[in-house]
Amino acid sequence: MTAYSQFTHRQTLLQQSDPEIRIHHVEAEPSGTHKGIILLIHGFPESSYQFRHVMGPLSSAGYRVIAPDYRGAGYSSRPSTGYTKKILATDLHTLLTTHLNITTPVHVVGHDIGGMIAHAYAHLFPDDVASLIWGECPLPGTTVYDDTKHTPPLWHFDFQTVPDVPELLVSGHEKQYLKHFYDRLAQNPAAFTEADLDFYATLYSAPGAMRAGFNVYRAFEEDKRDNLLWVREKGKVGVRTMILGGESSLLTALAQGMGEEMDERFVVEAVEGSGHYIAEENPEGFVGKLLGFVEA
After folding, report:
1. In what helix (H) or strand (E) does residue 174 lie, and over which residues does it extend?
2. Residue from 74, 89, 97 nearest 22 by CA
3. φ, ψ (nearest 5 deg) of residue 205
4. Whole-angstrom Cα distance, residue 286 to residue 246?
5. Neighbouring C-alpha atoms within 13 Å toward the C-beta of 71
6. How is residue 95 annotated by DSSP?
7. DSSP state of 153
8. What whole-number distance in Å separates Cα of residue 291 and Cα of residue 296?
9. What are residue 117's DSSP bridge partners?
10. Are 252 and 135 in contact (CB under 8 A)?
11. Dihedrals phi, psi of 26, to nearest 5 degrees
12. C-alpha atoms less than 13 angstroms from C-alpha of 198 in its C-beta half-sphere
């Protein structure tokens, strides 16, 4: 298994100042016949590191794999604004088309917050999407989002949208805060080693990192308005779609309803033996489901 540090790492300036928008991404080149490009978009509280176990197998299967840290996360810059999923998706589209010179449609895969970004990407740039795989998030604009956003399982949605207070309370306790989510939402919490926890805690302890992470949640109501507007004006997402979640995740059971509201052509699949963190809890299952859909 290729270590995360052994993949190609690059930094790209999308905007030099006012504010600086710098996107870090990790890349793996395909082995043998080139079958296409897969864009992997991570969730919170993670980074492109969450795909460390699956990038190698996907590239070995013939795909160029690109895993960015979206604006505000990982090694990317952390501006104070610009955290709607519309803007985050546009950042990634600019990275691929303008800076990496990609001219063919890509398979867009998003988990958690990344699922929201992936869905926005497919709405905004349908001609540049070969297929869409998203999941493990209550998509803003759906009935599931409205019904769950104030419930105890998603308590952090309210907490993280309060101005300033979450930053104050979490500061100095980043590792414990992050570990709460891995322990509670994973079917197999042992998938996260002490080294993994330290890596994520280091990223989210950096100046402005938690604020950027919370700002992603503070944009949800604007994301809801965007999603409803797109469906009203352009219709549901028309590209071939799979909603992918963990077998033991609450959100997998709710995926069908979200798909019916937001996606024209979709299937729902579950990664066996996994909770929320499907690419880390069962990498083989994740890769199998992804390739099974992409290559169908």
Report:
1. helix 174-185
2. 74
3. -90, -10
4. 9
5. 26
6. I
7. G
8. 8
9. none
10. yes
11. -115, 140
12. 3
Q: Dihedral of CA 10/14/17/23: which sign? A: negative
The rounded distance, in Å, linking the Cα atoms of 259 and 142 is 9
Strand partners of residue 247: none
Q: Quick one: tokens of 63?
A: 């795909």
Helix axes 194-204, 174-185, angle to 10 degrees: 130
DSSP annotation of 296 reads -
For every residue of 2-55, DSSP letters joined together read: --GGGSEEEEEEEESSSS-EEEEEEEEPPPSS--EEEEEE--TT--GGGGTTTH
pLDDT in tens, 81-132: 999 999 999 999 999 999 999 999 999 999 999 999 999 999 999 999 999 9
Which two tokens mark 279?
A: 């690419």
**pTM for this model (two decimals):** 0.98
Pair of tokens at residue 74 = 């990982």
**Beta-strand (E) ranges in the chain?**
8-15, 21-28, 36-41, 63-68, 106-111, 129-135, 241-246, 266-271
Query: Region 129-151: what's the mean pLDDT?
Result: 98
Instruction: Give the span between the Cα atoms of 150 and 162, in whole angstroms.
Output: 13
